[in-house]
Each structure stands twice: as C-alpha cells, then as structure tokens.
Amino acid sequence: MRRIGLATILLVSLPVIGGAQSRPGPAALEPHLEIIARTPDEANRIARATAVDPALNRFEHLPAGAASHDDSGKTAFTHALPTLNDAQILDFLSGRGIFRKIWVGAPSSTKASDGLGPLYNARSCLACHPGNGRGHIPEDGEKGGGHRGAALMLKLSGAPAYGAQLQTNSLSGLPAEARLDVTYRQETVTLRGGETVVLHRPRYRVSALGYGPWPEGALYSPRLAPPLPGLGLIEAIPAADILAAEDPDDTDGDGISGRARRVMSHEYGVEMLGRFGRKAAMATVRAQTADAFFHDIGISSPLLPDAWGDCRAAQTPCRDRPHGDGDVRGFEIDAKGLDLVTLYTSSLALPTRPDAAAPEVLRGKTVFHETGCAACHRPAYVTHRLKDDAARSFQLIWPYSDFLLHDMGEGLADHRPEDGAGGREWKTPPLWGLGATRAVAGQERYLHDGRARSLLEAILWHGGEAKPARDRVVELPPDERAALIRFLQSL
Ligand code: HEC
Ligand code: HEC
Q1: Residue 207, strand partner residues
Q2: Rounded to the nearest 5°, which phi and psi values hold at 470?
Q3: SS3 content of the chain, % helix, strand, coil (to 5)
Q4: 144 in Cβ contact with 171 (< 8 Å)
Q5: What is the pLDDT of residues 432-445, one digit of tens each?
Q6: What's this model's pTM, rounded to 2 decimal places?
Q7: Do residues 268 and 258 touch, judged by C-beta distance below 8 A?
Q8: Using a 6 Å CB cutoff, which residues line ligand 1?
C-alpha cells in the first residue's frame, strides 16, 4: 500500500500515472459522474481530513457524512440518504417497490411483474438482501434446508451448459440447474491467552443436475449477498483516490500490494474502475443492478436484453419458454424501472456511531491501526463534488475499504480467476455498518461466502497479504483483542 499524501492527490489528476502509461487516467474511468474539479485548496483540506489517523476525528461518528441517520436497529439499512431532494424521495419509494416486488413467470395477468426466469435464484432483490443487509444463510435445522434459493450462490466458468451462474430454481415444468448444499468442517485456532475459536471451512456439493453431467474442470466461486447501504457514495469516490493506494508490485515492500480492477463497461463502452461485487466486477450500481436482474432473477433490461436470462443455447426447453418482454415495457424491466431500482440501491443511508468516542472503542481503534488493518480497510474519503447530484456530493465518508483486490491466501481462495481478478483475490469490503449486522440480518455471517460466524472468525480467515495482520491479532493480549472487536462493532 502506498501512503496517500497531498502530492499524490495532486499528481494523479494528470492524465498519465507512473508505470501505467498505456492506461486511461483516473478521470477517464468515471464517465458515470459529472464532476466539478477540486481546487488545490480543497485537495489540501481533504488530504488532512482523510489522513489515516488513530486519534478521534470529530466527524467519524457520521460514517456517511451528512447522509447518516440515527437508527441502528432492524431497520438500520432501510433509510434514504437524508440529503435526497423531494423528487428523489418519490423515486426512492418507487424503486423500493420494485426492489421488493416478487416476480412471476410469463405470461401472467400482472404484466408489469412477469418475466421471472425461466431459471432463477430468487424471485425478488429483497429475498437475497433482507432489510438491504447481507444474505441470510439458513441455520442448522432451519426450514428450507440446503441452500435452494438462498442468498448464497455460485458463479461458474467452464460449464457451458450451465452458464455464468448456478440457478437453483426454475419455473414449473422446467428442471432447475441443480441443488446446492454446503457442509462445514470445523477447525480450531488457539489464541494467546488460551481462548479457542472454531472456524467453519465450507465444502460445496451440487446434486440433482438438470442439464447434464458436471463438466470436468468446471470452476465455481461462492458468493453471499453483501449489505447495500452507502453504495451511491462509494460510486462517487474519486477514482484517483482509489488508484493512489494501488501498489501492485509492492514497491514499498510493506507486504500489501492491492490492485484496482479495471472492467469493460457495457453501459459506457469504455474501461472503468470496478467498485462493486466481491471481486469488483462491476463499475456502477446500475450495471450491478442489471446484472442482478438478469442472472439472479432472470429479468431482461436495456443493459442485458436477453429475455431468457442465463439459459444457454444447450438449454433449449429453457430458452423456448414464454417471456415477459415484447409488451409495452420492451424489456422485462425498462430503462425507467432500472433507474428507479438503481436510485434506491444507491441511496441507502448508514447509521451514525453514537459510541465512536467511547474509551474502549478508541482503544480498539488504536489496535486496528497498530495491527495493520487500515492498510486495506482505509478509513476515509471525500466524495466528488457533483453537478446536479447534491445528495452524494462532497461528503466526508468512512467506509473502511481501499476498494482494491488483495491476495487473501489459500484459505479464502475460490481458484476461479476472472478477467482482471485472480483466484485468491477479493476486494476489501467496506466495514461501515458492521455493528448493525445482527440487528438487520438476525444472524452474523461474514466474508464472501458467509463462512465466518463472528467478527473474530472473519479476522482469523485473513491470509495472504493480510496474514501478518491476522497473526498480530492472534498474539494480542485478550483485552486488546476485545477492544478491537468492540471498535468493529461500533462501525
Ligand atoms: C440470489 C441472490 C441475489 C438476488 C436475488 C439479488 N442479489 Fe444483489 N447480490 C448478490 C450477491 C451474491 C452479490 C455479490 C455479487 C458478486 O460478488 O459479484 C450481490 C451484490 C449486489 C450489489 C453490489 C454490492 C456491493 O457492495 O458491491 C448490488 C448493488 C446488488 N447486489 C443489488 C441487487 C439488486 C438491485 C437486486 C434485484 C434486482 C439484487 N441485488 C438481487 C445476491 C443477490
Ligand atoms: C491485505 C488487505 C487486508 C488487511 C490487512 C485486512 N483486511 Fe480485512 N478484509 C480484506 C478482504 C479482501 C476481505 C474480504 C475477504 C473475503 O470476503 O473472503 C476482508 C474482510 C474483512 C472482514 C469481513 C467483512 C464482511 O463484511 O464480511 C472484517 C470484519 C475484516 N476484514 C476486518 C479486518 C481487521 C480487523 C483487520 C486487521 C486485523 C483486517 N481486516 C486486515 C482485506 C484486508
């Protein structure tokens, strides 16, 4: 990781950054924003406000700046950014309606809601992002068993008859692709002071295959739905500020590299910075939303127009099913509907941190910095000043992520490389809102596949570039470790 100084912030606004001559400059990577350039004086103030600093910052109790609110209970992630204007609030409410809508198979009498599938994982966005939080994993013995239709899914490659994602549900009369089951092997870690922690290593099994044998060499990557608050603010972080922390060859020798993912955007037809998804595959919330409609629910949109979703050519009974497009909507969800859901998912606020200044929390914050967590979980940014987008403009925010890909070691590897992201790499997830996890989801499940049942388990899975930080946590005196967890819970 490179330290971000004022010099870097000023330099990166030049079109060419050292070592990346053939690549577009940061400004070219964000065609989705109408940016008002920062003045040198602003850049200076921003560098001071966002400097990595274990001391209490007087604004850090507001994770989303002025776009924070003070409900930390079950509904913590359901509030609109308080900075939305009246027209946006109306659109937010319409978008919420579509986010919660339960889609049905075509043809149906409720035209605006048909087009589900034919293959799908779930029938609504809400099913996988309950309370706009992370996905729910059924507990032992909980109704539903296995993982049919749950928020845990497999991305695929090398399985041409199954497509890009394993759909575990289908319209009646059509076989689902498979049933997905996960079992866990227990492993015990002993910490300094004698405390033991049991980790759950997942194992996946697909059965009841609907479209032929599982191909030799097919690769899969398990993904649990992440929480959704604050995404519009993440979208408005200057690309330059994210790129400034890249250090792919670890030139500063601190053991932390970090790579930004550049992805080809179907939306803008240019290369952009990947910010969303567990491996940063998506550049904008709109692209991610269209992808979710298409792969998760089987709904076509102007961005992904095929009405049959992820049914492949080999899956003829699936492609031949009736679809919900071709009526007045054109697509199963039209541009207006897609924009409304995008506004909704972009505009969810974060709860404030009332105990940010509590002594135990501040102690934990010091431990967080001393053990090296902030090298990847970078605390603060100021969003771009944006034309006609006051709601997300120029906010000091505290997501605790560098939004870069890191090698997280064998234990977390999916061994399924994507174009621009390796099989051991994951994007640093934001840590804001962590404290509301249990209240919102009714359970705690962390990491890309939800294997960790507590924050401590999540830390103990860190490997690769994060192994030294993880080892330092194992070696901490128990009271300092407790303070670290307390700090994370305060976020
Ligand atoms: C079957 C479960 C499922 C459904 C249904 C679903 N999602 Fe997701 N969602 C996920 C998973 C899993 C990811 C992580 C994807 C990845 O890593 O590429 C995700 C990621 C996202 C993200 C990116 C979050 C981030 O922090 O990067 C957004 C935005 C999102 N979903 C919105 C939606 C919307 C809008 C809908 C409805 C159209 C929806 N999702 C439906 C499972 C689901
Ligand atoms: C090398 C970069 C790096 C360092 C250093 C690092 N992390 Fe992480 N952290 C990540 C990545 C990447 C993930 C996602 C891994 C996954 O999903 O498999 C993650 C995930 C997490 C999660 C789970 C979040 C969620 O929503 O599921 C927590 C909690 C966390 N880190 C805390 C810490 C703490 C505390 C430290 C310091 C002891 C730390 N991390 C150090 C990169 C890092």
Answers
A1: 179
A2: -60, -45
A3: 30, 15, 55
A4: no
A5: 999 999 999 889 99
A6: 0.94
A7: no
A8: 99, 121-122, 125, 127-129, 151, 153, 223-226, 228, 231, 276-279, 281, 285, 288-289, 292-293, 296-297, 341, 345
